[in-house]
Amino acid sequence: MTNKEIEDDNEAWDLVLEPKTSWYSLGLSQIIRFKDLLFLFVRRDFVSVYKQTILGPMWFFLQPIITSLTYAIIFGFLANISTEGMPPFLFYMCGITLWNYFSDTLTKTADTFTANASVFGKVYFPRMIVPLSIVLSNLVKLGIQFLLFMIVWLYYFATTSIIHPTIYILLVPVLILIMGFLGLGFGIIITSMTTKYRDLKFLITFGVQLLMYASPIVFPLSLVSVKYPQYKWILLANPVTGIIETFKKAFLGVGEFEWSYLGYSISFTIVILFLGLIVFNKVEKSFMDTV
Amino acid sequence: MSKVVLKAINISKQYRLGQLGTGTISHDLNRWWHMARGKEDPYLQVGEANDRSSKGSSDYVWSLKDINFEVKQGEILGIIGKNGAGKSTLLKILSQVTTATTGKVKIRGRIAALLEVGTGFHPELTGRENIFLNGAILGMTKQEITKKFDEIVNFSGVERYIDTPVKRYSSGMMVRLGFAVAAHLEPEILVVDEVLAVGDAEFQKKCLGKMKDVAGEGRTVLFVSHNIQAISNLCNTGLLLNKGQIEIKGNIEDCIKKYMMVSRPENFKTIGLEDRLKRGTGDIIFEELKAIRNGKESWEFNYDEEVTFKIKVTATKDTNSLGFYLAVRDPFSEEVISNFKIVITEKLVSKDETISFAVSLPKKTLRPGQYGLYFTLSNSEYKIFYDVLDNNVNIPMLNINPISMDVHENSGFVTIPFNLKID
Description:
The complex is a heterodimer. Chain A contains 14 helices and 1 strand.
């Protein structure tokens, strides 16, 4: 090489494509560069879902209402499961609102690579944009459903005297944040693992269903503590439990709130998210070869 | 000396053949076990050069092996090679869709790849919404798109439909809109795949024109195509890949000449059969096909020479009759000249029978230039097609060379003697 060429080579390169990157480089700067795409994806998800429907965004309201009603009839009225003295409709809606955010985020992010393979195969942008956009668009959806929950809650709060919100209401933003990250963490782990072997995919739909019954959504945690204390560990091992119970304690004043439960949920989320980012980061570079 | 904007250092890419399933997990575990102990990947040492037609012994192939090259600013590099030579793999690595197995690529400036037009179009969204979405996917910011929005719409020519969901668009409109967005990307390095293969002739010309403009602005273009005419028009340097390795790098004319030689199949019996059987029944298939000049195979002719093709076909079944059709195509795959029904035989062609024949184009018919060729076998009524050969089997381009200064290119494709009568 001549001096000129060496000089030329030493001048900074803007981008170096290598087979391996260190596991901790998450490419945050890339995500920031593509932030417009992130918001366009959120918008796309939101706008496209209810196009060509008559009720349009009204469906966001109808879903939780109908589910809560069904649960109120089946679990409350028919099975007569305790709602800790709360109106069944409100009790179920309380759990479902937050649970839906988690399960929607999880199932959709778990499909990131397979559902977007055609786009990912043609153009590069930070792959993380897609799961992040899912978290955000579900957050918007949660916002709408939360609004509905607040209306129902206010109605009962005004007409009855059994609802006693607690100071833990201040924790609600934190709860929402953990719930989203937990779903994201699980989702990106699953999508990373299913690019090559699709087995996990079969597990996910009914896995999420099972997880719901291992969370205090359709029954209170206290019911398990009293009736089946020997199985309580299952619920406590589930990181969702602490979040849901805190949420119920905050708005309804019922439920078993323990800082240790919530602390467990938070630590669990951090670990899962961290693991997820590492696996995702490793897989995203060459998943096109195996998908 | 203009500076190097892209440098590929020793890039190799290994692919695993066959299906992924229960069997592959043992390899994965073995690999993981080696890596975990800090050893080298045991499967990187196996693998062979990529050759589709010969059956290899290993499940691993090197789709690219030790590729080194540099691209300077303002260079328009044409990447050519047979199907399976590694062109697309190279593109995928350069466009960051996947990574190389080993080696690295260094880049200066923004790089954008155009492997497809209209990537990420959502059918339910309107043209307007999709322009923003597609632009952002390709790496533009919202601000940039807003600034160029009117230009994009103008270029696409679908102004009237801009607020209609794109699922209502014709496929042509979709492609136009997609290309319009892509054409307004402004990266320092643009990587373009054979997107020009879609769309009508007019659109292809527009695309080529746009790419010339891009190059004129001092930006760098990497262009992959089978369209030799387009490549030789557009590119100043070339890279010829063969079986995952660089055959030549340098002058585009040298690359094209060499490409013609490596890509010429000897025996057509098995080549591209999958595509051929989709388009024809395969009852009678081409076995040999050569252009002959002065008794020797050559795909280059002078304007004043007769162009002769020697053809040998084989029947795989008893077949009633045999007809033949030959068309010469321009660079945009439009037929410029063809024969009108040649019936070779109206009699039964029995299984395994071979028929050889020669077809000639009269001299001074095709103007100087490069042409694609299209051959079909059919029954004598042209109702049932047996076999089709065109760029699906890499038939070389037909080169007609000028013989003197007064026979120019670019003045149509065909000459015929007109009848002149002076009153």
